[in-house]
Amino acid sequence: MSEKATPQAEPEIKWDELRPQLIKMALELGPLVIFFIVNARADIFAATAWFMGAMVISLLASWLILKKIAVMPLVTGVVVLVFGGLTLWLQDDTFIKIKPTITNGLFAAVLLGGLVFGHSLLKYVFGDVYKLRPEGWSKLTLNWGLFFVLLAVINEVVWRGAAFYHPTDPKAATDLWVSFKTFGVMPLTILFSISQVSLLNKYAPPSEPQHIPPIVVDN
């Protein structure tokens, strides 16, 4: 007689792990929301100035609340200050529009380049939260590297396509790009992160199943 299958327990939500992720996401998403609001009420140059200030405050808040600043937000913050500064100095919004392309391209180059030399660099970013076997880190790093390439390509298509679609209305073109940057990239990133849960579970040590995927907010 076959034994009756025992129903598996629902995965336990680890709130101690989830809380820092939510705080981190809120701190990284805040500057984007400010960027969108100021652009809608004023223009891209005022929005860029507020965006730069909000990024600095976000990084400081991360240090005060979480007692650390993650590598990716720090790199993003530096790029925002550099390209935002060029945008304001030269009064050319091209610089702030290509900032996501540069940032995502940089992340992709670092992650994929590390794999070429046999290093899963994503482990150094999330290794204190997620425990994976070496093969799992390699696959997760590859997936995120390719996703960053995709985000870089999408950003170029959207901001250039918006300019082509609104050739006589730069404000409308900019508004379209800002809207996508604020409300399009985040859902894509969350969906991609959720898609990695099965990989996290597959390559986790038996005693440490993973339930919370890493989420990187693109600013």
Please tell me about this protein's structure.
By secondary structure, this protein is mainly alpha-helical. It has one domain. Helix content is 74%, strand content 0%. Helix 3 packs antiparallel against helix 4 and helix 4 runs antiparallel to helix 6. The N terminus is likely disordered.
Keywords:
mainly alpha; 9 helices; single chain; disordered N terminus; 219 residues
Low-pLDDT sequence parts = 1-13
Strand elements, count: 0
Helical/strand content category: mainly alpha
N-to-C terminal Cα separation, in Å? 59 Å
Radius of gyration: 20 Å
Q: Helix count?
A: 9
Number of domains: 1
Short précis:
The protein is mainly alpha-helical.
Helices and strands in order:
Blueprint (H helix, E strand, L loop, with lengths): L14 H27 L2 H23 L4 H20 L3 H23 L5 H5 L7 H32 L4 H14 L1 H11 L1 H6 L17
